[in-house]
Amino acid sequence: MGSSRRSLGLLRNAVARGGRAWCSSSRRLLASVSDSEFSGLDVTGDRNVDIFDRALKSKQRDRAAWLMRDSDPVLDTVTENLIDRLQDCKRTFPKALNLGGAFDAVRRLLQGRGGIQELISMDISEDMIRRSMIKAAEDETAGRMGSMQNFHLVGDEEYLPLQPNSLDLVISSLGLHWVNDLPGAMSQCRTALKPDGLFLATMFGGETLRELRISCTVAQMELEGGVSPRVSPLAQVRDAGNLLTRAGFALPTVDVDEITVRYPSATELIEHLRSMGETNAVRERMLTVKRDTALRTAAVYQEMFGESDGTIPATYQVIYMAGWSPDVSQQRPKRRGSATVSFDDLHKAFTPEASKKSPDDGPGGNLKQEVPTEDKEEPGTGDSKPETDGTTTRLPSGTWYKIE
């Protein structure tokens, strides 16, 4: 009972800072509050450059809420892989935030894992939240909820309305690649975490839908003489580690995976993207697509990437990120100059031959150079290829090298 009151208090504070909240039993707890107080909030120092139209993305996700299937193969695969990383941690996370993207898949697949007692699911789309509440109520009725309590919150990933040091875990499955201020959003996640709290996230990487990008570019160049972005820009793998470090996370970890899905045609691919809420939301996009360009894009896609069975492949590059809120108990690198044993001493201890090397030997002591003598048999003069006899290789120059 006490933990439930604390969760309700957390949600009330969230509403006071610009959100809307419900519990999983579909009973409305708190009223809507205007988010106008966030209009002047500056997270990174430069909020004048917005790549994505967040209002449009909210509408796209509202539409996707009624197109989405109960179980999407792409969303479920990515989410399951993300949760597997949570199970590698030998500790529990009583209070967790489930942030955007495939948050309902996280809620559904997270049951009984990670020792989570209270899960707050948050998304920018009110219709997505309502859909998740309905599904959560169905799971509760069917007895699939276990002991985990579910709460729902409408809010923007760029402005987390949560108290500092209030969460043990922040998990986001494909919920951050539409955020304009990604370092700021991740920094807020770190602030909301308790010391030694865990941040787990996935987002689509820059190689996602590369086949569609190429096909759109070719079709536009052929018919329109120029290129307008039809697929949203995404972060590169090399940027993920920098993002975690910039946000203040300790022990950052990044890995990448690729999922290839085959569709009957480009039309089915676009419909699937719509049902996931993953269609283009770039501000500087063209508002309409010419019919001829769309048809030519589908034709180019089939010509360049089509399989023998008539299907077309679509690649989804998924970046997995993990980081911890800093804490004094965490492992840290030693201070420079604090070593008590040198690598040279270790090398001598494990390779006794190194201590007997002459000044002319190589720096490692394990690469010896021998000059051929008269009693050593010379190979044929016309052979320019290296000759070997086990561990010794003779180069064309006449110098012998022996690797010990």
From TrEMBL:
Record bears the keyword RNA-binding: no
Name of one Pfam family that matches: Methyltransf_11
Record InterPro entries: Malonyl-ACP_OMT (IPR050602), Methyltransf_11 (IPR013216), SAM-dependent_MTases_sf (IPR029063)
GO biological process, one term: mitochondrial respiratory chain complex I assembly
Keywords: Methyltransferase, Transferase
One Gene Ontology cellular component: mitochondrion
GO-annotated molecular function: S-adenosylmethionine-dependent methyltransferase activity
Record's protein name: Methyltransferase type 11 domain-containing protein
The species this protein was found in: Ceratodon purpureus (Fire moss)
